[in-house]
Amino acid sequence: MKRWWETSLKWLTPGLGVKRWLLLLAVGIAILSLGIDFLLREAYPLPGIFYYLTFQFIPRGLRAVLFGIVGVTTVVAALVGLHRALLSPFIEADLETVTEAIYHHRRREQGPKVVAIGGGHGLSTLLRGLKRYTTNITAIVTVADDGGSSGRLRRELGVLPPGDFRNCIAALADDESLTTQLFQYRFGDGNGLNGHSFGNLFITAMAEVTGSFERAILESGRVLAIRGRVLPSTLRDVTLMADLRAEPVGISRVAGESRITQAEGAIERVYLEPDDAPAYPEAVRAILEADLIVAGPGSLYTSVLPNLLVPDVRRAVAASPAVRVYVCNVATQRGETDGYTVGDHVAALEKHVGAGLFPVVLANDNLDVTFDAPPGVRLVPPEVPPKAHYRLVTADLIDRARPWRHDSDKLAQALLRLVK
Question: Which DSSP state fits 113?
């Protein structure tokens, strides 16, 4: 337990937003004291007892110091007591805990503006780390998902797929809260509900109630009090297409994000139908105002690229003055990036969106880990061409518990160092 004065001094930390109100309080007390002084002068002569109540038998300088000490002590005691009285019905914490909470809240509010582009578990991992350092987070999520619960809702009700949005909202919320656990709950029994998650159904119902999918995402985020916001890359109903090469068949075409990784053959290219889907305006605005734009981690062809294949999103990223970083996956993904190095990931990205869109590439350099990898899955070696036109930054980004994934905190810290 810190000493009380150490906790109290934290209220004076720059940027906390407290000193200005303390100063205003002091000015108010000074003005009130002047008013009382003028009133007393009008009431002269005062009864003799005031000679003793105001310590006029003590020299004036010493009297000023004494009254100053007593006044400041009284004001501080009153503020502390008022603080406890007002907050105790709402929180079960002591003064130190509240001070720390406000301190960290203000620090996050002053954090950099970060735009994270992607989908799936990779984007959720990134958001879970970033929210510890900034609340100025915008997650831009693909709407091409057509598998599982999201795909069923998309086909049966005609809504945009809510699954990746649900995961991002949960990642930006309090991971320990009961509401977040409820949002991620997946039904296991029942003819109609089997396989659906509560969050997907909640977002779908909210879209019906509010009249729009984007409003449903906004209101769902408010329910969980998320640190940031989640936006679609486009509101158009798009389908992710892929051309795959397999011998001896040659090139075959596959429609639907969920079918791409299950089909035979190596991915030659992916594209959207229609290919001229307009970007969601708020997503473009967030990109242009960002300090840091991050693409990935996540499935390269089915999570990251579908967002960048929206022409307006790609143009906004190219025009943004932000630090633009592509985060390479820690491990290869079967059916998408089998045998890829970091250089292969970047080459595939640039084949679709052009060179130079992400001048910085962040990759894991800790390959000294062992895990029971499925066949065809391995850690991605940080190898790039000798004259690569992008800057490769490496760090230990491995999650020790799940070595095939990023550690959310390590990843967030590595990215924020690039901004600084």
Answer: -
- What's the pLDDT at 166? 94
CA distance 420 to 7: 28
At 373, the amino acid letter reads A
The 10s digit of each residue's pLDDT in 335-371 is 899 999 999 999 999 999 999 999 999 999 999 988 8
CB count in 10 Å sphere of residue 53: 9
145 backbone φψ class: left, alpha, beta (φ>0; ψ -120 to 50): beta
Q: Region of 111 please: left (phi>0), alpha (psi -120 to 50) or beta.
A: beta
Nearest-angstrom CA–CA distance, 285 and 281: 6
Alpha helices in 322-384 (DSSP H): 342-353
Sign of CA dihedral 148, 150, 155, 157: positive
**Domain boundaries defined on the chain:** 4-108, 112-143+233-419
Positive or negative, the CA dihedral 89, 95, 101, 103 is positive
pLDDT digits (tens, 9 = 90+) for 145-160: 988 888 889 988 889 9
Q: Which ranges in 131-172 belong to alpha helices (H)? A: 148-157, 163-172
Position 1 scores a pLDDT of 45
Determine the pLDDT at residue 324.
98
| Parallel, antiparallel or unpaired: strands 239-246 and 250-255 | antiparallel
Give the Å distances, CA to CA, from 368 to 225, 311, 323, 338, 378: 39, 40, 30, 20, 12
What is the assigned CATH class of domain 112-143+233-419? Answer: alpha beta
Contact 388, 343 (CB under 8 A): yes
The DSSP element (H or E) to which 418 belongs, if any, is: helix 408-419
Amino acid identity of 161?
Answer: P
Residue 389 DSSP SS3: coil
